[in-house]
Design a protein that fits this description.
Elements: H1 16-20, H2 33-38, H3 42-60, H4 66-81, H5 86-103, H6 106-119, H7 124-142, H8 146-164, H9 170-190
């Protein structure tokens, strides 16, 4: 009997958690992510997110089962359905996608990331970040694959445009240029 060769993780400069924290950076017309996320949803969404983060920590330390985390994720998804602001709904779903990624439910994470990509059509920064995150999920799920490379190249193209945009201040342009260098390194590691 031949045993399959295990897929070893590829060390990335820009992992899913790193990209997650790029949401809403360098956008002068938006408030910070946490404020935007709970502007309309209020206390219920904030309390649910705190509970979800606590359950994720308990899951990662072996104290809580994945089912409990899934229950908290479902609560957050229900809360997001009550939002009338598409960016707010997308950001709540990204919190849930991150949680699904952590517990290893990649299919559900991908569904929520697809929703966010659609919601961020008018927001090239956040859409590029979500494309990168989706590529990270596919890489963990499938190992090296063409779809990850295509998603990451699309994200890189958007960041390159933002780096050259006259609407981005110099500090922001420098940030985008540094991220583009890191993105190219990761793309080459997966090719």
């Amino acid at each position: 009997m031949v045993l399959p060769i295990p897929v070893l993780p590829i060390p990335l400069l820009i992992s899913f958690p790193a990209a997650y924290f790029w949401l809403n950076l360098h956008l002068n017309n938006y408030v910070m992510a946490a404020d935007l996320m709970y502007r309309n949803m209020g206390f219920a969404a904030n309390r649910s997110r705190v509970n979800l983060d606590a359950q994720l920590t308990a899951f990662l330390t072996g104290v809580a089962p994945a089912a409990l985390v899934n229950s908290k994720i479902n609560q957050m998804i229900e809360i997001s359905k009550g939002s009338t602001h598409p960016f707010e709904r997308a950001e709540i779903q990204l919190v849930c996608a991150r949680a699904y990624f952590i517990v290893g439910d990649y299919v559900k994470a991908l569904d929520l990331l697809d929703n966010a990509i659609q919601a961020y059509v008018s927001d090239p920064h956040n859409q590029a970040v979500v494309f990168w995150m989706k590529g990270c999920v596919l890489l963990d799920m499938l190992g090296k694959n063409v779809d990850t490379i295509l998603l990451w190249q699309h994200s890189l193209e958007k960041f390159n445009k933002l780096a050259k945009s006259r609407h981005v201040q110099q500090r922001g342009a420098d940030w985008y240029q540094r991220r583009c260098i890191e993105m190219k390194v990761d793309i080459n590691a997966v090719i």
